[in-house]
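TL;DR need structure tokens for one chain.
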Amino acid sequence: MGVQEKQVDRAVERAMRVDLAAAFRLAVRLDLHEGVCNHFSVMLPDGGTYLLNRYGLHWSEVTASNLIALDSEGRILAGEGEIEKTAFYIHSRIHLANPRATCVLHTHMPYATAITLLEGGRLEMVEQNALRFHDDIAYDDEYNGLVVDNAEGDRLARVLGSKRVMFLANHGVIVVGRTVAEAFDALYYLERASRLQVLARSMGGKLKPVRSEVVRETYRMILADTPKYASAHFDALKRILDREEPAYSH
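>> reply
TL;DR here they are.
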């Protein structure tokens, strides 16, 4: 590998570190986080190294430079500190199995998680934000406890399949994307859609259906614009961070 190629690789990793750190900080602002639990990761272009938050940091403390780089065996390649066990087994197995999973986001965000607590809980296709996830959600309907081995990580990866979203019964959600921007945009709208559904159900009425052909066509149109729209959305959110808490990119 030539000097110029190595410099390009470093620049790409640096940009991905900044984006992932931004996702953590934004998750705090939007109440998508929980304690020092939950985890976000992104696979670097080499296909064998990914970035993950280190155990024990509040997400408001995450920066581009304190993310840990590790391989698919859990060996730390760069950075200091520990990795959380469940983070490794969830993220490593999904990165390996799902071609859309360059970025993997796992949260216990409140409204989406509330849906996982219902028997047969589903995000219904009754509102525009929800329609972007038409036929793109997997549901794991049995909680097996903490994910502490490859077998359970592989099981979750199989349930997710090639979809972008998975609702984990009695637990939380996983969202994946080809970029940090696309994954975070999906996470944001998933929680917005979940919040509206929880609020609508709290009113005691019957959810108003959307015609199936409208659901399919709306999904198709949104999906076609996702890379451009998600990038613009995430760039706008990063500009807020650049103004108000620029240390995230250090």
